[in-house]
Amino acid sequence: MSSLNIRNLRKSFGAVEVLKGINIEARTGEFIALVGPSGCGKSTLLAMIAGLESVSEGEIRIGDRLVNSVAPKDRDIAMVFQSYALYPTMTVRENITFGMESRGVPKPQRDEAVKRVAALLQIEPLLKRKPGQLSGGQRQRVAMGRALVRDPKLFLFDEPLSNLDAKLRVDMRTEIKKLHHRVGKTTVYVTHDQVEAMTLASRIAVMHQGQVQQFDEPQVVYDRPANMFVAGFMGSPAMNFIPATLTTDAEGKPAVSFKATGGTAVLTLQDGISPGAAGRDVILGVRPEHIFRYSHELKASKKSIASVDAPVEMVEPTGAETIGLMRFGELEVTGRFDPDEAPRMGETITLGIDMSHACLFDPVTRNLI
Amino acid sequence: MTDATIAAVHDREAAAASRRHFVSRTIIYALLTIFAVIYLAPLLILVFNSFREQPEIAQNGLIAFPRSFQLKAWAEAWSTYCIGGTCEGMRRNFLNSLWMAVPATILSTLLGAMNGYVLSKWRFKGSEVLFTLMLLGVFMPGQIALMPWAFLLGKVGLTNSTYGLILIHVVQGISFTTLFCRNYYVSIPDDLIKAARIDGAGFWRIFRKIILPLSPPILIVTVIWQFTGIWNEYLFGVVFTSGREQPITAALVALTASGTNVRAYDVMSAAVLIGALPPLLVYFLGGKYFVRGLTQGAIK
Ligand SMILES: Nc1ncnc2c1ncn2[C@@H]1O[C@H](COP(=O)(O)OP(=O)(O)OP(=O)(O)O)[C@@H](O)[C@H]1O
Ligand SMILES: [Mg+2]
Questions:
Q1: Both A43 and A141 in a single domain?
Q2: Taking 90 as the threshold, does the pLDDT of residue B182 lie above it?
Q3: Most exposed of A51, A349, B41, B180 (fewest Cβ within 10 Å)?
Q4: Of the ligands numbered here, which is closest to the C-alpha atom of A38?
Q5: Which pLDDT tens digit goes with each residue over A81-138?
Q6: Domain of A120: which CATH number?
Q7: Is residue A133 part of a domain?
Q8: Alpha carbon distance B230, B97 (integer Å)
Q9: What is the ipTM of this complex?
Q10: Which of B177, B186, B175, B176 is nearest to B134 (CA)?
């Protein structure tokens, strides 16, 4: 059963079309992440699911009920806002019970619910405070509490962690994940942080310019991005795109060739892949973590390792790994190295490229081949 | 050695800076004092004269340090002084003003808050145009509306009545109160309203439970503004009421104009002060909040 079903959803503000035919469905209990760059329409989509924005065209169903023209309060949803939107003049307790009060839930039941949620989120000591007296992380918790207390069909989160500092964000991310495990509610989670999307979601919808570019499980989105936008958006540092031509290697197997610094490099494709006739232009997509310092052991241990020589232009140690920038002809290519085998500035390194994870894109349509 | 030189240079610069600071402070305070004296002098003279005896005023002139003391002028001004034939003092007119200013202030402020709420949080097609039109009212001098009001009050039978003046002041005041409240409410995040809508609160519940509790700073501003404005207004009072129905400002005009033989400056001073007391009181009690409310947003 699906608890959210969005079909051909369109939204225009005046003459500007912001959402151009969105299709997304969430199975019950699923955690869907909406990611995409700023302005791609994530918040608008969420607001439409919540009923805060009207639908220009298409359908939104929550638990099999068409809700296009149902008021927000009758949609059985709860929402956490990026700004938290805590009512500043109310205490934490009043913030949490406001919704139940509006709905006429009797006081004993309200108290019971507050107790449950406060225990779940460990905010009991804060109940008497006003939002102004809370830290960012505590506010975030209260905002979650206000949503959780409702026991709705659908949770909507609009970038709930983007106002927190980096460390707290990671902590809260884990907590949201745990919480979702425990509560098991269908959730739509907007973020522009792809790590958040990867870690939390059971499926990710990558949006760009008002369209869903890909809607799939995190690992699929990461490993087999539907197009170059998704490939470039997911992952940090971003995937390397190398314009190349299809060809055959010395043994006659399908390969790609491109201009490297020392001449033309020919990389044999993974066995069993034949993306088209020789001579076709393609874009080779290689993630930084699939580029390493070449060694014979490596070649022996992994299949489909191709090698290429490249001068090292820049080295950025981050502690856990070292980011290296190498020159491939006119391109700069990023690699993530183990600090032990990190490249040195100025060195010409022999790189191993794991071709089993490489992606090929059509340079015209920019779609995955 | 070099350290010492650097320190010395710093000391010299610091000394020069603090000297400049001192000079500019002195100038500022001197100017402020001059202006304060200019503004306060008339008030002070009035207060003095209200306690001086009339013969002494006549002898030493209006502007002089008091040589005599009496409380009689206040009592007379309040309840027995004769204006245009009736000898009831200012009491009745004072109460008229009170019965006019208090309801008109409350009503216009409430309406302004509601207008501001709608115009900032429940925008609709044309709401910006509507707001712009309401703003015109802020810049429109009251006398432009004299004739229409005369016509309207006549139609509804509210001429020469405090209710008529209440109606006028409520309507005339709405542009100001709406402007104040709308601009203040704009700074309340829309997310609060959205959250409340999801929480199942409707138009009125959001107004009562979320907007109003955030409003005291701006409500204080509008109340002070409206109360002093309505209390001090006299054009409508003079034109639309007469005699016993007049608000105190209009009665004061009659008082100074009533050309009986000797001018009772002591009583007049007391009467003027009686008329000025409520706005002064409001200012002393709420002035601090007035400035704060005008400069601070809804959410810190
Ligand atoms: N009320 C509105 N009127 C006109 N245009 C709007 C309105 N609301 C949003 N837009 C436009 O719609 C587009 C999508 O906005 P939206 O807020 O959904 O983006 P977003 O993906 O949430 O971005 P962000 O990551 O910055 O929050 C933007 O180009 C924005 O300018
Ligand atoms: Mg957004």
A1: yes
A2: yes
A3: B41
A4: 1
A5: 989 999 999 999 999 999 999 999 999 999 999 999 999 888 999 999 999 999 988 9
A6: 3.40.50.300
A7: yes
A8: 9
A9: 0.84
A10: B175
Q: Which residues contact B260 (CB under 8 A, 6 or more apart)?
A: B82
Q: Indicate whether A50 and A182 sit together in one domain.
A: yes
**Cβ neighbours of A85 in B, within 8 Å:** 189, 191-192, 194-195
Could you give the number of structural domains in chain A? 2
Please state, in angstroms and rounded to a whole number, the distance separating the CA atoms of residues A270 and B60. Answer: 113
- The answer to whether the CB atoms of B299 and A88 lie below 8 A apart is yes
Contact residues, chain A to chain B, C-beta under 8 Å: 47, 50-52, 71-73, 77-79, 81-83, 85, 87-90, 98-99, 102-103, 132, 146
> Does A85 share its domain with A161?
yes
- A121 in any annotated domain: yes
State the Cα–Cα distance between residues B71 and B57, nearest whole angstrom: 15
Location of structure tokens 């790609």: A256
Q: Does B300 touch chain A (CB under 8 A)?
A: yes
Q: How many residues does chain A have?
A: 369
3-state secondary structure of A359: strand
Whole domain around residue A205: which residue ranges?
2-233
Q: Which of A190, A217, A233 is the last residue of a domain?
A: A233
Q: What is the pTM of this model?
A: 0.83
Q: Which residue ranges have their beta carbon within 6 Å of ligand 1?
A: A 13, 16, 18, 36, 38-44, 192
> Ligand 2 centroid to A70 CA: how many Å?
22
Q: Which of A79, A83, A132 sits opposite B300 (nearest CB)?
A: A132
Whether A194 and A282 share a structural domain: no
Residue A218 maps to a domain:
yes
**Whether A79 and B213 lie within 8 Å, measured CB to CB:** no
Task: Say whether the peptide bond before residue A343 is cis (omega within 30 degrees of 0).
Answer: no
SS3 A240: strand
Q: Residue A36 CA: which ligand 1 atom is closest?
A: 21
Same domain for A196 and A327? no
Q: Tokens at residue B160, please?
A: 């020469």
Domains of chain B and CATH, by start: 3-70 (no CATH), 91-298 (1.10.3720.10)
Residues A24 and A91 in one domain: yes
- Same domain assignment for residues A122 and A255: no
Counting every residue written for chain B, the total comes to 300
For residue A99, the chain B residues in CB contact (below 8 A) are 198-200
Q: What is the CATH number of the domain that holds A283?
A: 2.40.50.140
For A288-317, the pLDDT digits (tens) are 999 988 887 777 776 678 888 899 999 999
Q: Are both A250 and A225 inside the same structural domain?
A: no
Ligand 1, atom 1, residue with closest C-alpha: A13
Q: How high is the pLDDT of residue A192?
A: 85
Q: Do A85 and B195 touch (CB under 8 A)?
A: yes
CA angle, residues B12, B16, B17, in degrees to nearest 5? 115
- Tens-digit pLDDT profile for residues B237-290: 999 998 888 999 988 887 777 655 567 888 888 999 999 999 989 988 888 888
CB proximity B194 to A under 8 Å: yes
Last residue of a domain, one of A186, A215, A233: A233
Euclidean distance between CA atoms A103 and A86, whole angstroms: 18
**3-state SS, residue B121:** helix
φ, ψ at A167 (rounded to 5°): -70, -45
User: In this structure, is residue A366 part of a structural domain?
Assistant: no
Joined together, the tokens standing for residue A91 give 């205490």
Nearest residue of A to residue B206, measured between CA atoms: A102
